[in-house]
Amino acid sequence: MKIVFALFLSLSTFQGFAQKGEPVILNVIYKFKHINDLNKPNKPFEQEMILRLGKTESRYNSWTDEVNMKTAVKNANNSGKSSSSSGGVFGFVPTVFVKSKGVQDFDLLQYPGLDRLVRVVVMGDSNYLIETSLPVIDWKVSEEKKEIGGYTCQKATGTYAGRTYIAWFAPKLPFRCGPWKLSGLPGLILEAKDLTNEVSFTFKELSRPEGIESTAPRKSRVIKVSEKAFDRAYTAFEKDPVSVYQSQLPIGADKAQLAYVDDKGVPFYAEEGKKMYESLKTDLKKRKSNPLELKIDAKGTGQVIK
């Protein structure tokens, strides 16, 4: 049915425009697929993602994680376990939760009218805000059309971060946003795939919000940092999450421990969690990394950014 409508960081809490948000007009769920290990092309990373659209801005995050978190909160009631996605307590001991899929707890906010892109990333016991300009994508719009979700969509081709994407946008949905960092077309992007078929955002469903929702980030207290500073913190967290988490806690806090969170959002503690985490690190060393964003050298060869 169609919907029609016209570390290493300065610890300063950010209280700017990104926290205000707008009422959500429309929700879009995409099936996201990414072959992040070229050694395993038949085992891509997959999640459902949700794009919440306001009148002039949007928020994009993992719908799969939202659903898993609701289940975890329900199961954690009266259990003594934390339902935190990145840091909390278990057995009265500070605990950092490390996910099998890496640091994926984030909000990505697009502000087309302000030319702003904002990431809010949960890492350990802190929420980091990274603000940059929206990517400028030189889209080439063609006359080719197809129907997606009951809407007539038009084809556009554009290159961003070393990948060329075929996008399909709906002119009757007047939003200049899309999934992830894709934006800048005269209509909502309902589908996008790169030419290598290594990355895709496939439309699943579109709906109005059931209650009051906002495009504001889910975390209200954040630390604003530069992209380079965050990358340094991210690298340190990947190398030793317990030490980084411990440094975020108050002086004199109990020694932190690690818990491993599997693909379904289920946490494992103590020795079992440590063994699973060590297995993950071994697997990561064997991977042929294929990140979402590539950079191009002088010869035009795609190289890994991080």
Keywords:
306 residues, alpha+beta, twelve-stranded mixed beta sheet, four-stranded mixed beta sheet, 4 helices, 17% helix, 38% strand, globular, disordered N terminus, disordered C terminus, GLPGLI, GLPGLI family protein
Strand content: 35-45%
Strands side by side in the biggest sheet: 9-10-11-12-13-1-2-3-6-7-8-14
Q: Determine the number of helices (DSSP H or I, runs of at least 4 residues).
A: 4
Estimate the global geometry from the Cα principal axes: globular
For the secondary structure, the number of strands is: 18
- Which runs of at least 5 residues are low in confidence (pLDDT < 50)? 1-18, 297-306
Summing up helix and strand content along with how strands pair, one would put the structural category as alpha+beta
Mean pLDDT across all residues, rounded? 85
Number of domains: 1
Protein name: GLPGLI family protein
Pfam family, one: Porph_ging
InterPro entries: GLPGLI
Organism: Pedobacter gandavensis
